[in-house]
Specification:
2 domains, Helix Hairpins, single chain, Pyruvate Kinase, Chain: A, domain 1, alpha/beta, elongated, 303 residues, five-stranded mixed β-sheet
Length: 303
């Protein structure tokens, strides 16, 4: 390898290092902000899901369309990924979990419909069998409730109409800066078991937002009538649950990207150091060869 090509590689590695270092710094700032938003919202989301759990324990919900277990083969999967890459294995883990869930629930992919939040999920399933019935960008760091309401309207309308017998969500659950866990949860039909799992996912095991109440949940007495209250309350509480999943996804995305960019920055530094050693060795060889040629020429002239 010539000295010129080694120099070019060193300069290219330095440029890559600058880019990854800048992306690491930006992701670190966004990570702290998104983590704080997601973690501080856990108590509110836990309370919202607990309200649903209290309703689920009442006898008046057994015949509600949102709680009725249906028989059928077609189901809807809400897949939450990011729009941007360079986030390590974050999106790959979510998509792998989605594929595994599809194989377990329905070998026939024509019976599976996908609602994708995030470009990575949409692009992955575009030519893999399942039909994509909805898509929403997941580009901005903020999560708009209007967007969530549109998603909830699609889920609830199609489930109540009988088009789907089940609606599940596949997303990344934020556990820590260095650990994001791909998670599959049932959204519809609602049940005490599925709601309990969602609550257990929301509540961290330790830290500032840990220690939520885990005692036996009482059952509400509803006035003026259960039907009127549930008609308004359930879609709103379901929207809160999905909103929180998106917040967790954002925290996971920025955490994974910061870790990935830090790894890339460290690796580029190593590569740069190795290239410099290679350059020094090559330059020393050239100098040694030139000195040898000069000495040989002097000796030849002397003889």
């Amino acid at each position: 390898m010539s000295l010129k090509s080694i120099k070019s590689k060193i300069k290219a590695t330095e440029r890559i290092h600058k880019v990854t270092k800048a992306m690491e710094a930006v992701s670190a700032v966004k990570m702290r902000k998104s983590q704080k938003t997601a973690l501080s919202g856990r108590s509110y989301a836990t309370a919202a899901v607990s309200i649903l759990s209290r309703f689920a324990g009442g006898a008046f919900v057994k015949n509600h369309p949102m709680f009725v277990t249906r028989t059928g083969k077609k189901f809807l999967m809400l897949v939450i990924t990011s729009d941007k890459g360079l986030a390590g294995s974050l999106n790959a883990g979510v998509l792998k979990a989605a594929e595994t869930s599809i194989k377990l629930k329905s070998p026939d992919t024509s019976l599976v419909h996908i609602y994708a939040i995030g470009k990575k999920g949409r692009d992955y399933f575009r030519n893999r069998g399942p039909e994509i019935v909805g898509y929403t960008e997941n580009k901005d760091d903020g999560v708009e409730m209007e967007l969530i309401q549109d998603v909830v309207d699609v889920l609830t309308t199609r489930f109540v109409s009988g088009e789907y017998h089940e609606c599940v969500v596949v997303c990344s659950r934020f556990n820590s800066t260095f650990e994001q866990i791909p998670t599959v949860r049932t959204l519809l039909p609602l049940s005490s078991e599925s709601l309990s799992k969602i609550v257990s996912d929301i509540a961290p095991k330790e830290g500032k937002w840990s220690g939520e109440e885990k005692s036996k949940i009482p059952v509400y007495t509803v006035e003026p009538s259960p039907e009127e209250v549930l008609e308004v309350l359930i879609p709103k509480l379901l929207a809160i649950g999905i909103y929180h999943l998106l917040l967790e996804g954002k925290a996971s995305e920025h955490s994974a990207r910061m870790v990935a960019m830090k790894g890339a920055s460290d690796k580029s530094s190593e590569v740069k150091q190795e290239l410099k050693l290679t350059f020094n060795r090559a330059r020393q060889s050239v100098i040694t060869r030139e000195v040898s040629e000069i000495i040989g020429g002097i000796e030849a002239m002397a003889n």
